[in-house]
Amino acid sequence: MSDEPPTPPSELSTDIVNTLDDYSPERLRHVAGYAEKLADHREREARLGEEDEDEIEARPDDLPDDVPLKATTTIKEINDNRYYYWQWRDGDKIRSQYKGPVNPDE
């Protein structure tokens, strides 16, 4: 280990460097620990934000905004006619939303 103090990264402002220079070794270790945890947290938030963007991009074009991604398409028969419905679980309830008639040619 050198007798010279370390050179601060150029990305740090003079104010931060001057503040850290006044800190005791124990306080510097607390700051370092906090900085590591904060960096981990920010990286995790960024990853989750990217996953949310991927989820939004993966949303089917015909899925309405008020229908969750976990919804599935089901067919219901009403008065001898068949219809598509979006269906999903919301707590203890099953929710449905009309999608359109079933094309008999499919």
TrEMBL record:
InterPro entries: DUF6788. Residues 44-68 are annotated as: Disordered. Pfam families: DUF6788. It comes from the Archaea. Residues 61-105 form the DUF6788 domain. This is DUF6788 domain-containing protein.
